[in-house]
Specification:
- It contains ten helices and 26 strands.
- The relative contact order is 0.09.
- By secondary structure, it is α+β, with helices and mostly antiparallel strands.
Length: about 425
């Protein structure tokens, strides 16, 4: 393929860096696809194993330098080890079409690892909009061999912090890197269809019970610490104080898209005095000793609270980072080695269902992502059958069809072609 690429470049008198793409079949026959007269998104792979800065070389060649003057002789180009690149995307890998996601990245902290490179265009506070490609970062791991590169990339993805209202493919990438077929290297372009269909990805995205337990406890600790700081006059009085022994456990209820978790806890008065807090915690059928060991960072503003802390669960120490949205009590929590989760603290008081939520029961179709309405395929009064296309939306260069889930009659249409809508915004109504 290398020789064929050079012949193609010579045939069109191409000078400078470029990329020639081929496709290879199971028998290692290869077929020409296209020439890109530029660098491709995968160029860090070449830079990792050769040690060359291709962008620098590209600029020097454009200024008149030759390959020989730069010391670029084909048989002297080194190839050291193995490199793998993955693309961290703002997308939902549990959907059939890997739908793009928009929102705000509250915290972005790439894991500082040797021989791992991050090419990103985001930072803490970045807004991911509908107008650009959903790629957030290219992560490149360079190891002594393929197995080493895979393990480096796995650790990077486990320890890289992405907190916020944006859904990413971070856990999906870990699923791929951990799949035995991928590790063996015996796969083709139909890898996902054969080994990781939508149903499998949806289930695999869910945290294990042990990881949910760790994340819920980390969330409880961040909430307890904030509440403890906000009641300075009552620090020595247990919250929900009562002299009734069966009421000695307080609780916090956390809501997640996969379930509701009740955290019951009791402060241990005779615990380790060097800790900030000592507790017995009941969650998911387990009763566990928990310690809040150390607050490494605490920042409080009218809109959010950010904290980083060390804690111990049943003698196992962990580090967690929490970002609390004060307006609606959303907790964006990250535990090293586990990942990030979004949990909402449930009010102790009963709330009523909003009019918008109730209207969803009456056939209102809402945007399940932010985007632009590029086509409305129906008009009020039209008869539609289940599966008919109602409208088409575009977000991050991807078109998505909104299909009817039932037979019915088109009622009100709330948007116009060309309108930009937010996630959850009503689009149209289908009546029975």
């Amino acid at each position: 393929m290398g020789k064929a690429a050079i012949l193609i470049a010579k045939a069109i008198d191409y000078v400078n860096a470029g990329t020639v793409e081929f496709i290879v079949d199971r028998n290692k026959n290869f077929y020409f696809l296209e020439v890109n007269t530029r660098l491709q998104v995968e160029h860090p792979i070449t830079e990792a194993i050769t040690g060359f800065d291709i962008v620098e070389l590209q600029i020097k060649i454009a200024m008149g330098a030759s390959l020989h003057s730069l010391g670029l002789v084909q048989d002297r180009i080194p190839r050291n080890g193995h490199a793998i690149e993955c693309r961290l995307y703002a997308e939902d890998a549990t959907t059939d079409q890997f739908l793009p996601s928009t929102g705000t990245i509250l915290e972005w902290i790439p894991a500082p690892l040797p021989n791992v490179r991050y090419d990103s265009g985001i930072d803490s506070g970045s807004r991911v909009s509908i107008y650009y490609d959903p790629i957030l970062c290219k992560i490149v791991a360079h190891g002594s061999d393929r197995s080493h590169a895979i393990s480096l990339l796995q650790k990077s993805l486990r320890d890289t912090l992405v907190l916020g209202s944006v859904t990413t493919n971070q856990r999906f990438l870990l699923q791929v890197l951990s799949h035995p077929i991928f590790i063996q290297g015996d796969y083709l372009t139909n890898f996902l269809d054969l080994h990781m269909p939508t149903e499998f990805r949806s289930q695999a995205e869910k945290f294990s019970e042990e990881n949910v337990l760790n994340l819920c406890i980390a969330t409880f600790l961040s909430d307890w610490y904030v509440r403890d700081k906000q009641r300075p006059l009552w620090k020595h009085v247990r919250s929900r104080f009562t002299n009734m022994p069966d009421r000695s456990f307080d609780h916090v209820t956390l809501e997640h898209k996969d379930g509701v978790y009740k955290i019951e806890y009791q402060t241990v008065k005779d615990g380790d005095k060097s800790n900030i807090g000592n507790f017995i915690v009941r969650v998911l059928g387990s009763e566990i000793p928990v310690q809040l060991d150390l607050i490494k960072e605490f920042q409080e503003t009218p809109n959010f609270i950010r904290t980083t802390f060390l804690f111990t669960i049943d003698r196992i120490k962990r580090t967690a980072r929490a970002y609390i949205d004060c307006a609606d009590q959303r907790f964006y929590v990250f535990c090293s080695g586990i990942g990030a989760i979004l949990l909402k603290k449930k009010s102790r008081f009963k709330t009523t269902t909003s009019a918008v939520e109730e209207s969803g029961l009456n056939g209102i179709y809402k945007a399940y992502m932010a985007g632009k309405v590029v086509k409305i395929a129906v008009q009020p009064g039209d008869l539609v059958k289940s599966g008919d296309v109602l409208l088409i939306m575009e977000s991050m260069k991807m078109e998505t069809k909104i299909n009817s889930s039932k037979d019915g009659v088109v009622g009100e249409i709330y948007v116009k072609e060309g309108a930009v809508v937010q996630e959850g915004e009503p689009l149209l109504m289908i009546r029975d």
